[in-house]
Known about the structure:
Layout (H helix, E strand, L loop, with lengths): L5 E8 L4 E7 L6 E2 L1 E4 L6 H13 L8 E11 L14 E10 L13 E8 H7 L3 H15 L5
Helix pairs in contact: 2-3
Amino acid sequence: MYxxxxxxxxxxxxxxxxxxxxERAAHAGYWQSVTGSQEEGETLxxxxxxxxxxxxxxxxxxxxxxxxxxxxxxxxxPEWRHRYAPxxxxxxxxxxxxxxxxxxxxxxxxxxxxxxxxxxxxEAAARCFSxxxxxxxxxxxxxxxxxxxx
Length: 150
């Protein structure tokens, strides 16, 4: 079965603006926030909560998740296009965030991620391989610093 070209990006952070990044297992040096494709029958929020639980072990109630009501369309890397139906080259990514009280130890899924780290805003953004992820971290850091969305 092919993946649906609709995904979530869930940026996890603390009130002190420490951001969680995960290193992809198959690509050393590819750091990212939690991300994953929407499955049939799921709402975007359900996808976000499922992916957070699967990729980190963090389980939170739905009201703790913040939907930024933003999406970005980007080209799917050629090496990952085989996961999608023939001819699908673009994905729509929906932005969510999750604030947790403090840095936590993360339970990684070895098939997906090899390591994790908590970094301040600028360092986290600089480490992301994805520009949509980088931009989201910078946007969130700025908004939170100025009393915006948390």
